Amino acid sequence: MKDAFGLPQSLLVLGGTSEIALATARRLIARRTRTVWLAGRPSPGLDEAAAHLRDLGADVRTVAFDALDPDVHEDALGKVFAEGDVDMVLLAFGTLGDQAHDERDPGAAVRVAQTNYTGAVSAGLVCASALQTQGHGSLVVLSSVAGERARRANFIYGSSKAGLDAFAQGLGDALHGTGVHVMVVRPGFVRTRMTAGLPEAPLATTPEAVAAAVELGLRRRAETVWVPGTLRVVMSALRHLPRGVFRRLPV
């Protein structure tokens, strides 16, 4: 069960090698979390992540999970919940894709959409149902400011995150009053392996900063978290710019 500050004893990470997710897990383990499930494709990276968190004092297990195989989500994730209550699910998987390449390769673009949106819808609904059955818990969804308004530079990724964000907000409304808390996290540019080599955007942040914002959001039982917080004002302005003006911006 969560403590008086809303922090979890048990955590299920969907996307077990995500740098943001692992930074969040480290932070929560330092506070109170003792049981962690890392769900992801079996790999040396997943095993290394589990070993690292074990060194911090947590009981860590891995579970085979592939966002692109929704037919087995219910079975794979159901086994985790069958082991006992899960206080928090962190939905952290996703892929950036390669915009220039993906525009010329519809199959690659579809893969981005299926990973970031379709896979998240499937896994999100499976976990939401399990959380509702146990009567408590938080579902934290890593969205992105890229979903606030599609940009020429990454509209394939941005559109998939826009769908995920809308889904998570609606799911939160559907679960209101059930004891299940849904929190949408909207980071800006985060310095990770996924963004390595890309031009750094203004207000860039780190996995550790996102993790700190997640912890604060859990304590406040927030529904939406921006990282950094100033992006809320920036994106509000950009969202309302006339399209002709927005199109000419260097974004």
UniProtKB/TrEMBL annotation:
Query: PROSITE patterns recorded for this chain?
Result: ADH_SHORT
For the keyword Transport, the answer is no
User: Its Gene Ontology molecular function terms?
Assistant: oxidoreductase activity
Q: Which UniProt keywords apply?
A: Oxidoreductase
Task: Give EC number(s), comma-separated.
Answer: 1.1.1.333
Per the record's keyword annotation, is Oxidoreductase included, yes or no?
yes
| Top-level taxonomic group | Bacteria
Q: Tell me its family.
A: Belongs to the short-chain dehydrogenases/reductases (SDR) family.
Designated name of the protein: Decaprenylphospho-beta-D-erythro-pentofuranosid-2-ulose 2-reductase
Species, as recorded = Streptomyces edwardsiae
